[in-house]
Structures are given as structure tokens and as C-alpha cells.
Amino acid sequence: MPGFVKMATLAELPPGSSKEVEHEGRIFALFNVDGRISAIDGICPHQGGPLAEGSLEGTTVTCPWHGWQFDVQTGKTPLSGKLCQQVFAIKIEGEDVYVSVP
């Protein structure tokens, strides 16, 4: 059943950082871009690279394995208009970061 799950605290996710979180066998990549928290599917569709371990420049994360790039707020990539990482809704309650899980 879909709902929000606590995946981090704001202290664990300072501006410019990322965090990988596993929940029920699924990998989520959380990012903080200038105080705005985003969450996308954490596995690169190319060959399964860990997106949370990639470099973050602005809103673009670059997969550390083969350089595929995704916007962490929209999930879109400059590689293809048809390819898009799933983006998950975020809710902040106090210092806690909640992610909407399917």
C-alpha cells in the first residue's frame, strides 16, 4: 500500500549531499539541492549503478559507473526524451524526511 516512509533526517542530508536508502528491496536516492530535497529511483537503468554515489552538480546527478545523467527533481535525462527515472514525492515533518513509496 502506498504511503510515506521516513528515510532520513535533514541533518543526514545537508545541502549538496545525497543518501542511498533501501526500503523493502527497493533503492532510493535522496538529494539535497540548495535545501530542496528530492528522491528518485536509486538504480541507474544503464547497468545498475548507484546514483546516490554519483556526483551532483546543480540538479544533475552523474552515475559513477558510466556517466549517465539525470535531473534529481524531474528524473529526466539529456540522453533521451523517452528515458526517465521515477521521482518520488517528499514530505518534511520537523527534521524528518519522508518519501512516498509505491
The pLDDT mean sits at 95
CATH architecture, by name, is 3-layer Sandwich
End-to-end separation in angstroms reads 7 Å
CATH superfamily: Rieske [2Fe-2S] iron-sulphur domain
CATH topology: Rieske Iron-sulfur Protein
Tell me the strand order in the biggest sheet: 2-3-4-10
> Helical percent range?
under 10%
Give, in order, the helices and strands: EEEEEEEEEEEE
User: Describe the biggest sheet?
Assistant: 4 strands, antiparallel
Radius of gyration from CA coordinates: 13 Å
Overall geometry: globular
Set out the fold topology.
Blueprint: E1 3-9, E2 18-23, E3 26-33, E4 36-41, E5 55-57, E6 60-62, E7 69-71, E8 76-77, E9 80-84, E10 87-88, E11 90-93, E12 96-101
Structure description:
By secondary structure, the protein is mainly β. The chain has one domain: Rieske [2Fe-2S] iron-sulphur domain (Rieske Iron-sulfur Protein, 3-layer Sandwich), CATH 2.102.10.10. It contains no helices and 12 strands. The strands form 4 sheets. A 4-stranded antiparallel sheet has the order 2-3-4-10, with no helix packed on it. It has a 3-stranded antiparallel sheet with strand order 1-12-11, with no helix packed on it. A 3-stranded antiparallel sheet has the order 5-6-7, with no helix packed on it. A hairpin with a 2-residue loop joins β3 and β4. The mean pLDDT is 95.
